[in-house]
Amino acid sequence: MRYQISGKQIDIGAALQSHVQDELNSVVQKYAERPTDAHVVFSKSGHEFVCEATVHLSTGLTAQAKAHENEIYAAFDACSAKMEKQLRRYKRRLKDHHKDRAEPVELFGASSYILASESNSEAEEPESLQPIIVAEMETPIPSLSVGEAVMQMELAGAPVLVFRNEGKNGLNVVYRREDGNIGWIDP
């Protein structure tokens, strides 16, 4: 498994990097069969250290965890515990989907835009109805079943996921509703 361990405006020593690799490897190998890479980012927020970890699995799924603590090692340990709990919850589902899937998830490219919001609610009438584009990015759209899409959305902690439905070959959306249930849009 490839590791990318970095810090935002803080130095990450060799001892911490070794600790992260050993601990994360034991957690991920315990619950996931073939992880491909892991990204761990440490930062400081006020007096607390923040640890964000993202692990990409060979099945195309992504698991993410984030934790805040007063010590940097404690922040990683809390993040690792959240990752372990998340992977343990989905171990059966991950294995079931992995058995059904002979090949990795196919990804399709799509453009993603960030539009400027109006900072003042009492702003003057805009000159045109065309929004101002702040950023343009390439976003991958995975080809998944509905169950895999829901699992991917929950693992990533995302409120919405756009995916290509394997069964119908059309674009679909799953999202978390305000009542806690999952919504599925199948046009």
User: Could you say which overall geometry the principal axes of the C-alpha atoms support?
Assistant: globular
What assembly state would you assign to the polypeptide chains in this entry? single chain
Please give the share of residues in helix.
Answer: 25-40%
Main sheet record: 5 strands, mixed
Number of domains: 2
Low-confidence stretches: none
Q: From the coordinates shown, what is the CATH architecture of the largest domain?
A: 2-Layer Sandwich
Beta-strand content bin: 35-45%
Structural class computed from helices and strand pairing: alpha+beta
Q: Report mean pLDDT, rounded to a whole number.
A: 81
CATH superfamily of the largest domain: Ribosome hibernation promotion factor-like
Euclidean distance between termini CA atoms: 38 Å
Classified by CATH, the class of the largest domain is Alpha Beta
Please give the order of strands in the largest beta sheet: 5-6-7-8-9
Would you report the number of β strands? Answer: 9
**Sequence of secondary-structure elements:** EHEEEHHEEHEEE
The CATH topology of the largest domain: Double Stranded RNA Binding Domain
Secondary structure tally, helices: 4
Give me the Rg, rounded. 19 Å
Subcellular location: Cytoplasm
Family: Belongs to the HPF/YfiA ribosome-associated protein family. Long HPF subfamily.
Function: Required for dimerization of active 70S ribosomes into 100S ribosomes in stationary phase; 100S ribosomes are translationally inactive and sometimes present during exponential growth.
Protein name: Ribosome hibernation promoting factor
